[in-house]
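Take a careful look at the protein record below. Let me know whether the structure tokens fit the sequence:
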Amino acid sequence: MKITEHINARGDKTLFSFEILPPLKGQSIQSLYDHIDPLMEFDPPFIDVTYHREEFVYKKRENGLLEKKSIRKRPGTVGICAAIKNKYEVDTVPHIICGGFTKEETENALIDLNFLGIDNVLLLQGDAIKTEGRFVPEQEGHAFASELIAQVVSMNHGKYLDEDLLNAQPTSFCIGVAGYPEKHFAAPNLKADLKYLKMKVDLGAEYIVTQMFYDNAKFFNFVDECRKMGINVPIIPGLKPITTKRQLNVLPQIFYIDIPEDLSDAIEKCKSNEEVREAGIEWSIQQSRELMEGGVPVLHYYSMGKSTSIYNIAKALF
């Protein structure tokens, strides 16, 4: 079932969903199930599964040459989506990124997803490799999410990379994209960022999931500005409870977001990370309630591989 269909069928109810990270290479999928199991109590209509590019280091060999070695590989987004869909009978949303894939590899992944009956994809440029400093597309790959959208839309119309294919069956993917209430870090301002978002919607994106934020005023302003631009697809807020003091500095650096003074003051007063988790849960509950009152279709939580805080939030809300 498509995300847009879930939203259209919800009535006045706000839906609950969350995002998971694939386990690191060598870890069991059971660790993922242990994370998902408690959250199924709240009937999520869909679960997002991220994709992360390989990271590399160069190790010096005895002969003095450098050997490129892959580290921190998170394999199996397609397989994990299929496993979750089969085990929990819930829709899954794989993240498809530009980085690290050729157009042909992207097409093959989409074909596999289509065979598995997975109806939704979230299309993203993806992050730069840490050693590169800026995003560099794969040779024969896509540089921008807009190009990914165009490829998926073409497949939805039965047009594949091999133009000689006859009677090719169209796919039927529901396309999601990312939105940034505090603008994308590469955009000069929010208005410019929204022009790119509008382009993605005009190309075929059917819903938007936002970057995490902690100030609802920025989200509601973002939605208002989207509507003024003619962006009328559903906009789903993405939320993440703070769980450690370190995140006060790390999250703004990584995700280019602001932490409201009231929240940072409350976190700074905490004497332990347990107190931080409680403060983060309380803030997220109040933030979520205000968003629900504002009529958001879905509350989407970034779990970062940990479910306890999200479970406590959902328990208070759903």
Q: What stands out?
A: The mean pLDDT is 91.
